[in-house]
Predict the 3D structure of the following.
Amino acid sequence: MKILFTAALLFAPMFLPQPALAQPNARGLVAINRPQVELRDLFSGLGQQGSLVLGPAPAPGQRIFVGTAQLSAIAEEYGIGWQSHGVDMQVIIERPGQPLSRATITAAIATALQDAGAPAHCAITLPDFTPPMVPPDASPRIMINRLVFDSLTHSFTAELLIGAPGMAPQSANLSGLAQPTTHVLVATHDLVPGEILGSTDVAMAWIADAGTGVVNDPSQAYGLQIHQAVAANSPLTMDQLGAPTLIAKGDQVTLDVMLPGLDVSAQGVSLSQGGKGDLISVLNPASHEIVQAMITGPDTAQVNPASTPMRARQIGYGAYAMNAASYDNRGILP
C-alpha cells in the first residue's frame, strides 16, 4: 500500500486541472532592443512558447511589418489558436537606434588619412553622408578600409565598417574632402564693434581656408578693440582689430603743440575716431581750420608742428564748423 500511495502522489499532478492561458492576440506596435524577433513579439498570451525565435530583428532605427497573411501562417505553424476573423491585421516591430556620432567617424578617418600621407591637421567634410544607426548606448567598433587619398585635390574615398553588440556588421562607402588647416585665433562668441578682447573671447582652432591676415597668436589680440563684427567660430584678422578707441568723432580734444622752448595747447573737436597712435583730423571751432594730430591718450592729441592747417570749407567740413562750439583759441593754432 505504501508503494501504491507514493505512485499516486507522483502522478496526481497529471490529473489536476491546469490554468488556462489567455486567448492569443496579435499585437500592434512593438519595440524591441535585441537582435532577434521572438514569437511573443507578434502574439500575446503565449507563455513559455513566446520565447521561440522567429528570425533576425530589424536593424537599429528600422522597423518591419507583419501582415495578416503572415500572421496566420505563423500561428498555424506554431499551433497558436489565433485567427483574424476576416479583419486586416498588422504588427509593427521597431528597434530603437541612435546615429553613430559623426565625430567618432571623422576621428577614425583622420587616423587613416595620416597613414595615407594627409596633413596631421585637416578639416574633414562628408557631403551627403548620413551616419548609420547603432543600438542605444552601444560602444561600436569602427574601422576604415580601402582608403584612397588624393593629395592634389584633397579628396578621399574609403569604406566604413561598423560592429556593435546586438547588431549585424554594417558597411558604408565614404567620399569626402580632407582640407589642410591653419592654427588661428577664432571668436568663442559673436563679437561686436567696441568690445575689448580678453582670454574668454577667443580661442585657438584649426581652420580650413582661414584666409590672409589672420591672427595666429593670442597675445597679438588681447586688449585690442573689435572694429568689425565677427561671428562665433570665425577667424580674426588684424583688419578687424585695433587699439581701443580713445577719441570718438565729435569728442572735445585737447591739442598739444610742441615747439622749441614752447609748449602750447588748445581745444578742438575730433572729426574722426581712433586709438593711441592713430592720426585724426581735429577742427578748431574758432578759426575753422583743421589739423592732423596723433592721439596720445584719452581726449588728447599732439599736433605735428610741420603740418599745414586746412580751412574747413576747403575740404567739405564748412557746415560742421558752423555747428561746432566756439573756443577762444584763435591765436594759439595758426
Notes: Helices lie at 2-11, 68-77, 102-115, 318-323. The longest strand covers residues 170-187.
